[in-house]
């Protein structure tokens, strides 16, 4: 009976139903309804409003001026007054285009940030998905351990009944079974939590799937570090900082353009009351002095450009360092998985089988058999 029970340990783990949630479906659902992605929509609306505002031209002004009235003698009353009605234009001298450029750069930066956020949502969903998949596999192992413990208790009780084992072995197997049952309960609760965390990725307030499906043993080949490094130039993380730099450049150009004072043009008609005649008038208002009223803002904008360049250099180094670390970890983990799966587990399976035979023949204690089982479970 013990050999039959231990034989189940050597069988492949149970697979979940094909109708279970796949990784692709989980990511698709998150990208469709994730609450985090709604933030990008609102952020873009904010910048689009600023872009529209940046394109607004200054309004025409209407200037009405009355002179020489309610005075003395000749200027008593309004008969000899002069009335001037003028239209006033404000010449921004290129500022509007710089405002549009800066606002458009901000919109582009928002779009790039939205793309990065989409990738983050997809990555977070993948992490949550793999946590559920891991907990499912751990639960299968825990259930298998409980089944083995229950069968072992029956076998040991039978051996104790015929005097072939000590009652100490029965106490050990009872305690071992209790620990296995607690472990199963613990993993079951972990699975409930991880499933809820995955459902929250697409905004669900309850778990709306039974299980996830995937193969933790599928280890595809990985690209070389040199190939991955070559693709960093087009990565959204780098492009986000490049876009941020373009925003700073546009803001600097805007600050420099705002150093130019606006001009005002006037043209209209003047009515001379004493002669009952009308004449055209025109004028222009120009600022005096060479002092730059925007010098502080320009210096600040230049510093922002330098800061964006420095941030890009630091971010690139950070990404390259992280990429190297992850590539090394992945390579080592794949190597360990291959050794464990191809060499260690077959060896431990043989040990468990031999230990079960020795236990049945009375040459091994239950403790020694249990140690062999634990080693196999740990490897799996």
How would you portray this structure in words?
With 380 residues, this protein is α+β, with helices and mostly antiparallel strands. Helix content is 65%, strand content 9%. The protein has nine helices and four strands, in the order H-H-H-E-E-H-H-H-H-E-E-H-H. It has helices at residues 2-9, 23-33, 35-54, 95-161, 167-200, 225-230, 236-257, 295-360, 366-379; strands at residues 61-67, 82-91, 263-272, 277-285. A four-stranded antiparallel sheet has the order 1-2-3-4, with no helix packed on it. Strand 3 (263-272) and strand 4 (277-285) form a beta hairpin. The longest helix has 67 residues, at 95-161. It starts with a helix and ends with a helix. Mean pLDDT is 86; it is low at 1-18.
Going across the major beta sheet, what is the strand order?
A: 1-2-3-4
Name the average pLDDT: 86
Largest sheet: 4 strands, antiparallel
Order of helices and strands: HHHEEHHHHEEHH
Count, helices: 9
End-to-end distance, in Å? 23 Å
